[in-house]
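Issue 218. Parser rejects a valid record. Input:
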Amino acid sequence: MKDPFPPPPAALARLVQPLADALGLTTLPLHIHEVLLAFTVYHLINTRLAPWLSRALVPRSYAALTPRSKINWDVHVVSLFQSCTINALALWVMWADQERAAMLWRSRVFGYTGACGLIQGFATGYFLWDLMITVQNVHAFGWGMLAHAVSALVVFSLGFRPFVNFYGPTFILYELSSPFLNIHWFFDKMDMTGSWAQLINGLVLLTTFFSCRLVWGTYQSIWVYRDVLAALQARGHAREVGGAAAQDTTTDGAGESMRFAGAEVVPVWLAVIYLSSNVVLTCLNFYWFRQMVQAVHKRFQPAKAKTEHHTGQVALEVHANGAATTQVDFKPPSSVGSEQGRSRVVAVDESVVRRRPAIDDEIEPVAVVAL
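Output the parser choked on:
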């Protein structure tokens, strides 16, 4: 299936050709305009549209954010837009690209279709932007997110060799959980922590994250490991027979999808880099899922039913009927050294008990794609 997007300007393709030749990214000149377009759009959303839209729709919530949280907010707006867009494109390509659907292992490793190249172009543009913003704000996002940004950019860039171009739309579907992750984060910042809306969204988030990233992602990772290992074995067999290409007995590889396949050889370094990046990203997905389960549980964890008395401290008591009171225990200056101070009881709205405020500096996974 051809790329439905218009071709790049000839001057731009010629400009990037030396870089593509140096890195062995054969099909990059065909999609460089999509990479640059995605990078530019996401940068403009982050620096222009997200702040303007947030001030217009939720002025109080946005104004109350710390500078660090505003950075995170704008990044979540970009991620929400990106995940919705790329999910729709990937699902459409997987449904409409019949050439891709007919691929066997050799075409899945060495083959190429323009539609899959479109997905890789937009994804590479996003991860290029993601790497830039993560490096600029590594103190806010953490080294785990930096490792993810580097790994994802490397993995998707290698698709332009072409290499496992088939799996571009497959792994992009990790992003199906990202809209709910972003919405969950926005609920925290809009003082909706612990609300029914966040509870429902949190359950959908955990379900989609587990299904798309841990189940679907691990299953597809096993398939890509098998395909790459099959290509490595074919490489070894070709050496044994004196360098002739080891062909299977199927018609796979005879179609238009193999026009950029070249010698159909997977270098060992390429297999190591790709599979290592895949392992890193898969491990991050399991780690982030554990974090999200803990974060959702914390927001809806009931308060402990006990009262403590400390000088100058506030103790919260939740009764069996759901009513709540706070007891403020204090000692006036004249009672210092005495065994017991005075206290008073103040009624508290029970909804305050149920809603645990989100920690502003808590690091949660920004909506991401992981291969």
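Fixed in the parser; the record now loads. DSSP finds 14 helices and three strands in the chain.
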